[in-house]
Design a protein that fits this description.
single chain, about 300 residues, alpha/beta, Arc Repressor Mutant, subunit A, D-Maltodextrin-Binding Protein, domain 2, 3 domains, 14 strands, about 40% helix, about 20% strand, DNA-binding transcription factor activity, LysR_HTH_N
Length: about 300
């Protein structure tokens, strides 16, 4: 009887929503995963999961057990690490962040982080889209904006300033908007992941939101940046992405007097998991990096 294995199978089944995913992760057969969870349910004399051909769902008892089992497994892992004398951060750290932030800022900091923590490995997942941290086994996600998911916790690591911006060539041809409502007469570059449907074209200003429109829609902030530099329209972007171009005068920040407050840049992690030392070390390290990155340090570039 290996109750820890049964517990681990159940916890990861809840997090991934799939017996086959757990089987691949643990390198055991799928029937074994099903059998281990059934053995756990028999031991506890209660049903933990509702099974169907399409999905797994926890019962109320299963959800309660999951929260305690997840914490117990994290505590055991930490205890084993301490017993082996592994006081320094170690192991594999999975981090998710937006592609632009990852390639331009986080990747640049990786050599120093890995040199400081030689026993830590980092798997960096770059995507502008939403991911389920728990289901995908991600330790930390670096994301901008207020925390909306109660299943997560957030630690602020920076402040991201967003600005309306256009190239000097675009402004020369189409003019400069004087007030936010003037954007309705301009070609705006729409970032589709800013929201769903019409919400993706809602740009915030201190005087209120403006619903903008444009013929080019992209799901990548880097794509928006490149479209701005190619004189294709007005973008709404984190200022750090255009710090060099702003300094050289290749682009111009617009509607500065109406700019909304900066948004928090947070390190997100599961509220139900014990944060490993390697994750805490990464958060502290990146806080220092962002504090020294123009546009992410809370100081306006415009």
């Amino acid at each position: 009887m290996d109750k820890l294995l049964w517990m681990h199978c159940f916890v990861r089944a809840v997090e991934t929503g799939s017996f086959s995913a757990v089987a691949r992760e643990l390198q055991i057969g799928q029937p074994n995963v099903s059998r281990h969870i059934a053995s756990l349910e028999k031991l506890l004399d209660t049903r933990l999961l509702h099974r169907s051909t399409r999905r797994l769902a926890t019962t109320p008892e299963g959800q309660s057990y999951y929260a305690q089992a997840r914490h117990a497994l994290d505590v055991i892992a930490q205890a084993e690490s301490d017993a082996r004398g592994e006081k320094n951060p170690h192991g594999l750290l999975r981090v998710s962040c937006a592609e632009s932030l990852g390639t331009e800022v986080v990747m640049g900091a990786m050599p120093a982080f890995l040199a400081r923590y030689p026993d830590v490995e980092v798997e960096l997942r770059l995507s502008d889209g939403y991911i389920d941290l728990v289901a995908e086994g991600v330790d930390i996600a670096l994301r901008g904006g207020a925390l909306k998911d109660s299943a997560l916790r957030a630690r602020r690591v920076g402040t991201s300033e967003r600005i309306c911006v256009a190239s000097t060539a675009y402004i020369a041809q189409h003019g400069r908007p004087a007030v936010p409502s003037d954007l309705l007469q301009h070609e705006c570059l729409i970032y589709t992941l800013l929201g769903s449907g019409s919400a993706s074209g809602r740009w915030p200003f201190s005087s209120g939101d403006v619903h903008v429109s444009g013929r080019l829609r992209l799901n990548s902030l880097e794509g928006i940046r490149r479209a701005v530099l190619r004189d294709m329209g007005i973008g709404y972007l984190p200022s750090w992405m255009l710090a060099a171009e702003l300094e050289r005068g290749e682009v111009t920040a617009l509607l500065v007097d109406y700019a909304a407050a900066g948004t928090p840049l947070n390190a997100l992690y599961s509220a139900e998991r014990l944060l490993p030392r390697r994750a805490s070390a990464f958060i502290e390290f990146m806080s220092g990096v962002f504090a020294n990155t123009p546009g992410l340090d809370g100081v306006s570039l415009v």
